Amino acid sequence: MSDIKKAVLAYSGGLDTSVILKWLQDTYQCEVVTFTADLGQGEELEPAREKAKKFGVSEIYIDDLREEFVRDFVFPMFRANTVYEGEYLLGTSIARPLIAKRLIEIANETQADAISHGATGKGNDQVRFELGAYALNPNIKIIAPWREWDLLSREKLLSYAEKHGIPVEMKHKQGGSPYSMDANLLHISYEGRHLEDPAAEAEEDMWRWTVSPEKAPDAAEYLDLEFRNGDIVALNGKTMKAHEILAELNRLGGKHGVGRLDLVENRYVGMKSRGCYETPGGTIILKAHRAIESITLDREVAHLKDDLMPRYASLIYNGYWWSPERLALQTLIDHTQATVNGWVRVKLYKGNVIVVGRDSKTDSLFDSTIATFEDDKGAYDQKDAGGFIKLNALRMRIAANLHNRKK
Amino acid sequence: MSDIKKAVLAYSGGLDTSVILKWLQDTYQCEVVTFTADLGQGEELEPAREKAKKFGVSEIYIDDLREEFVRDFVFPMFRANTVYEGEYLLGTSIARPLIAKRLIEIANETQADAISHGATGKGNDQVRFELGAYALNPNIKIIAPWREWDLLSREKLLSYAEKHGIPVEMKHKQGGSPYSMDANLLHISYEGRHLEDPAAEAEEDMWRWTVSPEKAPDAAEYLDLEFRNGDIVALNGKTMKAHEILAELNRLGGKHGVGRLDLVENRYVGMKSRGCYETPGGTIILKAHRAIESITLDREVAHLKDDLMPRYASLIYNGYWWSPERLALQTLIDHTQATVNGWVRVKLYKGNVIVVGRDSKTDSLFDSTIATFEDDKGAYDQKDAGGFIKLNALRMRIAANLHNRKK
Amino acid sequence: MSDIKKAVLAYSGGLDTSVILKWLQDTYQCEVVTFTADLGQGEELEPAREKAKKFGVSEIYIDDLREEFVRDFVFPMFRANTVYEGEYLLGTSIARPLIAKRLIEIANETQADAISHGATGKGNDQVRFELGAYALNPNIKIIAPWREWDLLSREKLLSYAEKHGIPVEMKHKQGGSPYSMDANLLHISYEGRHLEDPAAEAEEDMWRWTVSPEKAPDAAEYLDLEFRNGDIVALNGKTMKAHEILAELNRLGGKHGVGRLDLVENRYVGMKSRGCYETPGGTIILKAHRAIESITLDREVAHLKDDLMPRYASLIYNGYWWSPERLALQTLIDHTQATVNGWVRVKLYKGNVIVVGRDSKTDSLFDSTIATFEDDKGAYDQKDAGGFIKLNALRMRIAANLHNRKK
Amino acid sequence: MSDIKKAVLAYSGGLDTSVILKWLQDTYQCEVVTFTADLGQGEELEPAREKAKKFGVSEIYIDDLREEFVRDFVFPMFRANTVYEGEYLLGTSIARPLIAKRLIEIANETQADAISHGATGKGNDQVRFELGAYALNPNIKIIAPWREWDLLSREKLLSYAEKHGIPVEMKHKQGGSPYSMDANLLHISYEGRHLEDPAAEAEEDMWRWTVSPEKAPDAAEYLDLEFRNGDIVALNGKTMKAHEILAELNRLGGKHGVGRLDLVENRYVGMKSRGCYETPGGTIILKAHRAIESITLDREVAHLKDDLMPRYASLIYNGYWWSPERLALQTLIDHTQATVNGWVRVKLYKGNVIVVGRDSKTDSLFDSTIATFEDDKGAYDQKDAGGFIKLNALRMRIAANLHNRKK
């Protein structure tokens, strides 16, 4: 263990990573660089600086990554209408590769030979951090304290903290929530405790970002979303940056009770786990993006994307953002978005996101002269359908004839 | 045209198929057998008998197919969590193969050499009827009047009707709805007119099966759904037949504003078309089925199903229910449902279907002793994760090393 | 029919298209532009000019498309290791989109409003020509005489030819072969007659491009193939253009009896058909391309390509080269080829193409320090495998435990 | 380590597993049960009994698994036309799940609490053995000595052997081959040494089962293969059991130089590795099975199988034979084989397997009356193709029109 000189720690300022900070210094006798990222989780980050200083840390990184996060990670993911296991919008998964990237960049800048993180050995996040780190720096050393130390119960952790003068009031930092939580601009998640029984309904006071549908306003609210190349670029006519749009959609969705999710998912490490999520803005984006694609994307291209989506979602969920296969799929996905331009109108009301209109001045493939039930003036020859059906049926007719002969 | 002796007509009793009935008799000089199916569309069928008799039809079939429809078509489809283009629950598509099957059965019984239907040459339904019919009887003749005749405008149709004494008040049969509609136990659909502009919001008074979320009750309602082999077999503790369950879920969903959908879809014949759908019961089933699978299905089996689902959905949408490839996929899908047993609790509230609990006494793969954030007493060795990550990263590390050497 | 002013005909100079030329002039009373392409089929093209002139054609196109064909169609296809139905290298399919493109270009240049071709109504080629043409010019008119006229038997065709002074000796142009044949730089194909019985062995004297393995030289021959970005750029150290390489590989493969294929394939129009093919150069390229990818492509990227390949192959077979979904897939495929650089050595011997070596100075991911059976000096920690296996097994162990409890 | 009472060892009788036997006894102080399987590898197995006895083993299993191996593992795999990475016929992979199954069965019979094997920590076989074992007995303990001990070089192993009186002449048992080899009825494989340089050609005297194409007979040999439900049941008219057929095909293929393969493959543990394989019988089966399917399988079913095949192949390669997803896929695959009945004639000649005919009295979907180039007497209406093409082109025409308007 003595061969590690300097480690970059993904540091939230909370109890767990504070214990890790101290534990790294003691166990590895190494210098620690702290890295705290603003991904829009809605917490003060400056306290993390003070805490790090108290532990004698001299290289402290506190980075505002919100724009990069939404522009280069969240939006590209939504271009694929990405959903894991039919439900989950990958709010935690998509933030990890950015953190991995910054950990490696900071390791390079500070000539650190290791990185460290506070993810447990049971979860997906360790995989996401480490696969990303290895892909970006194959020789980096990785310290995952939860897989190494013996502080596996909360009591042991607290006693270690007290013994080493780590402020235990930190544990109340998250308002005393009994849940294991993660938050960034895309979502907030809850796991553990009460939720470990998948039969039990989540408690109403667990939810933090959204009001319940019951408490949402009685009046619906309409939003106009403008898309360019598959990304939302303007909201109600106002052009904004990616992270500004997501923040505003979170606010609006949260207000209307949009984006709660309660599910049991399959972790990459092999177990099922129950999680609750609030993804108000993302829920709106997904609906709206499908709607704009519905008029601007060719059928077979849309179906190709749908066929590939679960695989792409699994790659992100499993931590393969920085893999060559994710990049290959992204190349295809991004290529398809060149025509995904136009606007979508959605209505928010008590938990519902309802698409009520969509159009594209430049790229609509909806051709009302053909689709009409009225006289189309020859745009489409109904007689063509006879031949279309006949040839599509041919192989089945041959088989049925054989079948009849066999009887 | 004179070589057709007898044709079985899919007959609703409405204006269009009444005109077709007469037109067939006149044009083909053939006997017509009428077939009217009760698929739960919620209309009186006996008037169809009277009308058919008026046209001199002597072989009249009016069949209650509701149980077969839900048990053998709707439920098998939901076992795959089937959704077309991310949204559409295939309410129209799934009814067509059953109608095709009955048309062929009746043709065999009545020694008819042809079948006929009222689907237009622009839509998917002609394809679904005819592919099904050809697959089941390769030598059947098919008459699709909309592709043959010149009554392509409403005026011409009405004038033909008046000329031949076909009661035109029929046109008000559907309450004078200006939409092209289709209904069965799974859904009701709307197309045409106002909806032909995808930018325009659907009018509130178009919807028939569901109240608007705004008008739904202020109190939520909880449902307990029991699954056996992937199908719902009991509702709130009461065992019911497939079609009874769907009818009851429609009632409950409709009451709570559940299951409205407004989308632009890609037809098999090549055009985009805007449709609105109400699928209250189906919307509940889809959510609940995913939830019961989430605890009873192996991860990789679930992902395999997710990967195949869009293909399976397209097969049904495109009319290939009776194809060998649909059957092959169904074999796989049904095989996976042996362990899909247990219950799901959902909450209906103003358009929302919220899963709040799920469990299985016999088949839950959720293992709280492993997933727990608390001490798991050795059920899972966190150190295993290190090797798991290292080997999964190996190929990317080798590539990154090569990349570094190249620089 | 009178509304067509000028039609561009894909004209081989042979009997069939000469009859079509005349038939177009007579039936449509339109001007005809002839287009004859050199795709490396190995025939004199100038006679086509003389014949066209005899029919009074004034706009005659004879284009050498060999380089474009191999560079922009054949090579991109082989980047995907494309094989239809496990066997067929798509020699005919891949030439059609280029012909379609030139037909449309010439129609634009000559202000023609229609194109015409000699493909029958039973085959795939009509589909490939016409889908391509429609995709490139949605308003083009297409005349497919075989679907229109009544010259459906050889006798009728000959009698028409004689009646209109079309030299019937043309029918012996292909050496009197009784087969329906197609040739270009990638392959020559045979269909019809004797081959219509799939139980019957093809006759030895049918084959034209390859000697039989039995007659091939007794001495093997080694080839060194150099790849850049997935394409062969040099043969035995000599840099050549795409079409020159393919021609030389055809010569070498043909000499060694490489590339014969006898199969029953599924046509897009719904029937099975028996075909024999000679693809000597393509057979070598496929083997060599897989070999260079085996050391330069990431595992998961290679598997992604393998998963998508059958779909890509079907797109080409079915005539969707100019579709947006083929383009989207090509974008992914081409993206993956950036690292496919290096060389492959193959041995040709009596029908066999045997890969005997492969390497890449710049892009080999083969790392002998890790793969070695000898001491790897710590490059790979075998203990990691334990954790890798344990976590990959976890879901199956949980299921087995449940299974045991149920018993 | 002291908690293991009895371990079942997969014992070949060779040096490595003999060292393991002794090492297990010494290290774990446990009883050892030996299990030696006859999978058709062509070696005397009785010597293994003598050796085991010498080490004091009292429970010795020597099982002839040849029929089960081919009938229940090899043949089901070939029903899917299974090939890994375009080339590899999975000869090693498919034997491992059977060995895993027997290890667990024997552990149950002998009340052993552990199993052990001689696979290294770098390869795929450890994964295949252990995933299989865990799936069949989730609580089994697994000892993988190569991942535990320090005998990682050949010298250390030999010195351990000499020290413990293990006959070192065993090392010459495989004729002194310098390669790491594996053999069973499906194939023999070679890895290591000279082959670790992928640029170097394999040496001719490495190959053991096949003559070189150069030394194969100058006269071709024809075989008639009869299929029932996708499996070969008779060879040249003689009905045989599965393993007898494979043995005979190996003899015939080997005689004619059929089935050599030299490739670089991607291991599940993350590295590329070079291997050479001889699979004479399997190479013939693959070709013949595709041929019988070509006339008896529906197009879309065949394409579905082709789309799923790479996934199925990876499952087997990666060791997931006993997983629920492999079983789900097998259910689909087996379902499709009900009509795969008939015969195929192949010609073997100097390394070539050439399909020269195929037919099925009961299940041929090849309909010469439709496919014919001659007059089909109305079996197929060529005019249908026009409508077929028009509707398939519609979406591309709409897009092209939009594209033109934009210009």
Automatic annotation (TrEMBL), chains A, B, C, D:
Its EC number is 6.3.4.5. Its main location: cytoplasm. The lineage of its organism: Bacteria, Pseudomonadati, Pseudomonadota, Betaproteobacteria, Nitrosomonadales. This is Argininosuccinate synthase. It is an enzyme of class 6 (ligase). It catalyses: L-citrulline + L-aspartate + ATP = 2-(N(omega)-L-arginino)succinate + AMP + diphosphate + H(+). GO terms for molecular function: argininosuccinate synthase activity; ATP binding. It comes from Methylophilus rhizosphaerae. The keyword Ribonucleoprotein does not apply. It comes from the Bacteria. Pathway: Amino-acid biosynthesis; L-arginine biosynthesis; L-arginine from L-ornithine and carbamoyl phosphate: step 2/3. Homotetramer. It is found in: Cytoplasm. HAMAP family: Arg_succ_synth_type1. Residues 6-167 form the Arginosuccinate synthase-like N-terminal domain. GO terms for biological process: argininosuccinate metabolic process; L-arginine biosynthetic process; urea cycle. L-citrulline binds at Y88, S93, N124, R128, S180, S189, E265, Y277. InterPro entries: Arginosuc_syn_C, Arginosuc_syn_N, Arginosuc_synth, Arginosuc_synth_CS, Arginosuc_synth_type_1_subfam, AS_cat/multimer_dom_body, Rossmann-like_a/b/a_fold. L-aspartate binds at T120, N124, D125. PANTHER family: ARGININOSUCCINATE SYNTHASE (PTHR11587:SF2).
